[in-house]
Design goal:
Layout (H helix, E strand, L loop, with lengths): L12 E7 L6 H9 L6 E8 L5 H11 L3 E6 L4 H11 L4 E4 L5 E2 L3 H10 L5 E11 L5 E6 L8 H6 L9 E4 H7 L5 H4 L6 H10 L3 E13 L9 H18 L5 H21 L3 H14 L1 H6 L1 H16 L6 H12 L3 H12 L2 H13 L2
Parallel strand pairs: 1-2, 1-4, 2-3, 6-9
Antiparallel strand pairs: 4-8, 5-9, 6-7, 6-8
Helix pairs in contact: 9-10, 10-11, 11-13
Length: 362
Amino acid sequence: MNTTKHNLNQPLISVIIPAYNAEEFIAKTLESVLSQTYQNIEVLVVDDGSLDTTAAIVKSFAQKDRRIILLQQSNAGVAAARNLAIEKSKGEYIAPIDADDIWYPPNLEKQLNCLTSSASTVGVVYSWSVDINEQDLLTGGFYNSTTEGEVYTALVYKYFIGNASSSLIRHICFEKVGGYNCQLKAENAQGCEDWELHLRIAEHYQFNVVPEYLVGYRQIASSMSCNYAAMAKSHSLIMADVRQRHPEIPSNIYRWSSSNFYIYLAVKSNRSGNHRSTLSWLAQAFKEDLFMALLRHNLYLLSIESLFKIIVSPPTKSGLELKQTSESNQGTTLATIEKRTKVHKMLPSQVYERMRFNSLTK
């Protein structure tokens, strides 16, 4: 049984974890949450109708640590699961994390320090994140936006937060704007629920950033089998709603946003080995935002690789794939990522994107 004593003056953070068939990684996620340097937390795990041993694993953790609360519902989707956790939560702050991601130990402490030292107009604080594989090793991907303040238009342009596990949100924000949007699942358009929520919050609150890599965002082959068409529909529905609510936003920002999202889907398709889909998403990205797409050197490499795979269709892994697999298994280091970040900032596409962001956040 957890016997950690907490300072009663410390605010309670409610960690919310939606879990569906999450037996492979839920233990790692819970261990990372319980290992936070900030300990005054409650952990609400919602088993969303899992068919595996997810509930049993969570129960075993709950027997050892009374801060863990298991909630169960028939399968209703990630938005409904998060909403149930928020409804049952008691904390002044809400910290969402997906059931396969991890936090590094100082994450909640640094986020809370940032949020409590900010003005009450700041509703969300987010941390930087890095991509990890099945073994928790870094794979080289990273999300390190410095966008803060009045971010609504910038958030329309791009989901700069990176993922659903990177933000700490004042509970009062949910009282103001409501919970996660369950309608997206009803319309077979899941995938952008966290983006949609943050957009509604950004209409009323400012955002701040903790500029440190404190979140591990898991990218694995099994998670790449999601419905990309549904994700594209999710993005399209969200942007249609934004257009209706904010006719003052220039129409070209929506094209830029679509292009960014199609590139994201192209990368995911490539990782899952669906190279025809990769080329299709890339073509749509070029159509929506040709100038930016032409500046992205990696899109040329992605296009050539996908064409090569389609034409050759090798029965075994190529030397490039074997090299990538080997690097992925070995992992990279944070120092390497920080060096890559410096180079990344100097790329023409990134210089141009910063110019866009500066114009959008003025």
